[in-house]
Design brief:
Blueprint lengths: L23 E4 L2 E3 L6 E3 L3 E4 L6 E6 L3 H16 L3 E3 L7 E6 L4 H16 L3 E6 H5 L10 E3 L7 H9 L5 E2 L21 E5 L1 E2 L10 H5 L3 E2 L2 H13 L5 E5 L14 H8 L8 E3 L12 H8 L7 E3 L7 H7 L5 H14 L4 E8 L6 H14 L3 E6 L16 H15 L13 E9 L5 E5 L5 E5 L9 E10 L4 E9 L4 H9 L5 H18 L3
Parallel strand pairs: 5-6, 5-7, 7-8, 8-9, 9-10, 11-14, 14-15, 16-17, 17-18, 21-23
Antiparallel strand pairs: 1-4, 2-3, 12-13, 19-20, 19-22, 20-21, 22-23
Length: about 525
């Protein structure tokens, strides 16, 4: 998930909540003019605490769940009258939504807090760091809001702007913010929907559970209604499901993930798509058939993010990951066999404290076996308070060597090969490339396809038929064959299937049936 720094307007019209009383202090100056005994009053100098006079700079680190939280906080602040900006220098207050997964992101947070304080800016810290480590020295005299209290962000910002330090978090809260809060989407065409918070695991290296806690699933009906609203009311084209572990959804409310997915696909309109987020192997092993069926649905991207973290069973056991190398391979093999051209992403941690050179070779072997098109490679960093932090670290030079070796292996192969040139795909375009010169489109397998931006033509939120002209490691370039409002081929066929029809033979049969009915009308 990219940093959410460009939130400028809410994507849905929401009623402004009743505002509290605000102090408007008016100071009046009187000035004596030479040669004039009359006193003349200047224009009042107004110092306003009204929200629409204040600007909030919002930055986000971490996963798409954090991104969704930022969109809700941005929406609430906008609904209350604040301006949310990407201009940190000219903002009155900085709202920093933190991530505790990696040491570097936490270091960046600390540096930004110091920068803000040096500039005399007010600061509010949200996210997993504020929840899991509120006593950190650099959070002293800084307002913090917990992950389960983001619906109170307006109050926290208001009080902080008044010069107060707010500490609003509850580790024991059993409720999560409602899904129907105002939302300011980073991308108006994409709904990021967190389906649960927390997880069932107790991984020895992870600090996220200290922040997000145990699994809390949103009700099925609430999730379906939020998805329906995002599509039908807000005009979203993509639905991204997210959480700390998608596969665990429902285990605390006597349901399982396929129950939710089967209901969600019913409310995806024509021309829209759904993407599944990260799921750990243990929670989909019992539902491989159903998950494969969902991934084959024409309105669902054939994409799955399954983090493995290590190829060695000994290391997985030390991490308390609750599955084996063989379990992971079972999931990947099944999906590759049942879902054509599926795009599988995974994660590895290099140099976990108990990882031997032989263990690391098993991880490399797994990469060679599957040649994952997306590979998130992380060097182990001890997170304070976790069991793994008490273990003796592997030498830093060796840690970097292993991370570099896996990175080099990852760059040695490619999913997008030259034989793709000339191939034609239907792609849904919802983003602009970082260079600003191309749109980003995704085909059914969620492959990254750059589409040229033609002057005067806005393709965002639309489908296009494109032909591949160039391939690289992380993307394919294309040329536009045609843009169309009608559905991609797969979705047109699916629409026929809803009426019990499929393919050319069924159409011929239908025409024959109509002809017979026509002839019989003469008798």
């Amino acid at each position: 998930m990219c940093d959410i720094e460009d939130l400028v307007e809410t994507s849905a019209t929401v009623p402004r909540s009743p505002l509290k009383e605000f102090n408007i202090r008016v100071r009046t100056k009187r000035k004596e003019f030479e040669g004039n005994s009359n006193q003349e009053e200047e224009k009042p100098i107004i110092q306003s605490d009204l929200p629409w006079s204040k600007t909030v700079f919002l930055k986000t680190w971490g996963c798409s769940h954090n991104g969704s939280d930022s969109e809700y906080m941005g929406g609430l602040l906008t609904a209350a009258g604040f301006k949310v900006s990407n201009d940190k220098d000219n903002s009155d207050i900085w709202l920093l939504n933190s991530c505790t997964v990696k040491t570097p992101s936490e270091a960046q947070l600390e540096n930004m807090i110091k920068e803000a304080q040096k500039l005399g800016k007010c600061v509010v810290v949200a996210g997993c760091v504020s929840q899991a480590a509120p006593s950190e020295s650099y959070l002293k005299n800084v307002s913090i809001v917990g992950v389960k209290q983001i619906d109170q962000i307006v109050n926290v910002v208001e009080e902080t702007l008044k010069g107060n330090t707010v500490r609003l978090l509850s580790l024991r809260s059993k409720t999560t913010p409602v899904l129907s809060l105002p939302k300011m989407r980073r991308n108006k065409f994409i709904e990021i929907l967190a389906i649960n918070s927390g997880c069932l695991n107790n991984c020895t290296y992870c600090k996220t559970k200290m922040a997000r806690g145990n699994l809390q699933s949103y009700p099925l009906e609430s999730l379906v209604e939020q998805a329906r609203t995002a599509f039908e009311v807000d005009g979203c084209k993509e639905l991204w499901l997210t959480s700390e572990d998608l596969g665990a959804w429902g285990r605390d409310i006597q349901l399982v993930l396929p129950d939710l997915l089967k209901e969600l696909v019913k409310v995806i309109p024509e021309g829209c798509m759904m993407r599944l987020g990260m799921t750990n192997p243990p929670y989909i092993l019992d539902h491989l058939e159903e998950i494969a069926e969902i991934l084959n649905h024409p309105k669902v991207y054939s994409f799955l993010h399954i983090p493995v973290q290590a190829g060695s069973n000994a290391v997985l056991d030390d991490m308390k990951r609750e599955y084996t190398n063989e379990h992971f391979c079972q999931v990947v093999d099944f999906m590759k066999e049942r879902v054509p051209d599926i795009y599988i992403a995974t994660d590895f941690i290099c140099a976990f404290p108990t990882e031997t050179p032989e263990d690391f070779e098993e991880s490399l072997a797994l990469v060679r076996k599957y040649e994952f098109p997306s590979l998130f490679i992380n060097q182990f960093f001890p997170r304070p308070g976790t069991p793994a932090a008490r273990l003796k670290k592997i030498d830093g030079t060796e840690s970097k060597r292993r991370t570099s070796a896996m990175t080099e292996l990852f760059h040695s192969y490619r999913r997008y090969k030259p034989d793709r040139i000339g191939m034609v795909y239907d792609v849904l375009i919802c983003e602009v490339a970082t260079d600003g010169k191309s749109f980003v489109g995704h085909n059914k397998c969620y492959e990254h396809i750059l589409v040229p931006r033609r002057e005067g033509e806005d393709l965002l939120g639309k489908w296009a038929k494109v032909k591949i002209t160039e391939v690289a490691k992380f993307y394919m370039k294309s040329e536009i064959i045609e843009t169309e409002k009608k559905l991609p081929t797969g979705q047109r066929e699916n629409k026929l299937n809803e009426f019990g029809l499929a393919g050319p033979l069924s159409i011929v049969a239908l025409l024959g049936y109509l002809l017979i009915r026509f002839l019989m009308s003469f008798y």
